[in-house]
Fold this protein.
Amino acid sequence: MKVEVRLNEADFFRFSVFNAFSRNQLWLRPAVFAAILSGCAGVCFALHDRRGAVLLGAVLLLVALGLPAAWLLSFFLSLRRQAQEQKLADKRYVYTVELHDSEAGISVDNGREHTVFLWEQLLHAYRRPDAVYLYVTPQRAFLIPDRCVPGGADALWTLMERRLPAERRSNHK
């Protein structure tokens, strides 16, 4: 199965949000930070009869909510900037993925580089409602939007089911 991958900003955003928040759970540290500081602010508000307790509680609550919000804003602005740098406003050709239903595995060609990965080398495949993400390392993935797959996304996922063991694939459709 040969897939010419063309990505746009929406594909890039969906993948980046999945990778950051679902796969790598980057939301966890800001949430724990916010919870701890909010709890401290709550203690300060409970001790409202003490001098300066309400002011300290307000400052702690502002920091507890402000820093994670600033981090999220920075994350999404960074995604926008990266999408613009990669010129993803339109569906731009990025690479061609060839998936073999044999030991040959997958090959990826972007016009400058050609790489081959055996099925055993694939770390994990994730099926999302609009794409399949093939991870070859924890930091490197190939995005395959459903609209790019000749024969449909179900044919691609059927191939993944035949070639990858169940613990190395996740269907989140």
The chain has a mean pLDDT of 92.
